[in-house]
Amino acid sequence: AVILAAGESRRMGRPKLLLPWGDGSTIIREVCRKVAASGVSEIILVTGYKREEVVSQIADLPVRVLYNPHYAEGEMLSSLQVGLKAISKASHACLVVLGDQPAIEPEIINRLLEAYYRGRGRIVAPFYRNQRGHPILIDKAFWQAIIELPEGAAPRDAIRASEDEIYHVEVNSDSVLRDIDTPEDYHRAQGTTGG
């Protein structure tokens, strides 16, 4: 898995990944903990903004930390490129996880993995009420195209031509849609999770 955790949290106005979550945790720690509790075999956390503070939150978790020096320019794509270049060559697919999605459930991650290993599709995404969410599992056949995308592009640009290869796993939780970008998102998410 590659967890994208380099952004500057401009819409939040403060480092959102370090915000409290649940019982003594933080948003980024919760995301890493949930991914570690799933069947994923390798976890890479790509940091950028406030990297020392972010790393201090997950020091005891089985996570390999990388730094994206270009996090200020097109953070999501550049961070994913850093992660994909570093992932084990033995891996068949990569789970792309948003660092600001603390409500994600390990069970949903495992359902995505299961669908992939059953050959359902080379890209596997969760769907909730006809909306595609995250995390998304991407077969290694697409990695090089993503790595070669120019600045300003989005990861979906490398996948767009392959829409028919995307397998949708229907889930009964809106956690796959809930990332935290604004103070309103944060307060709403805390209210729905008891965080």
How would the blueprint of this fold be written?
Layout lengths: L1 E4 L14 E2 L3 E2 H10 L7 E4 L3 H7 L6 E4 L7 H12 L6 E6 L7 H12 L5 E6 L2 E2 L3 E4 L3 H5 L8 H4 L6 E5 L12 H11 L2
Parallel strand pairs: 1-4, 1-6, 4-5, 7-10
Antiparallel strand pairs: 2-3, 6-9, 7-8, 7-9
CA-based shape = globular
For the termini, the CA-CA separation is: 24 Å
CATH fold topology: Spore Coat Polysaccharide Biosynthesis Protein SpsA, Chain A
Q: DSSP helix count?
A: 7
CATH class: Alpha Beta
Structure explained in plain terms:
This protein is α/β, with parallel strands linked by helices. The chain has one domain (2-188): Alpha-Beta Complex (Spore Coat Polysaccharide Biosynthesis Protein SpsA, Chain A), CATH 3.90.550. Helices cover 31% and strands 20% of the residues. The strands form 2 sheets. Strands 1, 4, 5, 6, 7, 8, 9 and 10 form an 8-stranded mixed sheet that branches. Strands 2-3 form a two-stranded antiparallel sheet. Strand 4 (44-47), helix 2 and strand 5 form a beta-alpha-beta unit. The longest helix has 12 residues, at 75-86.
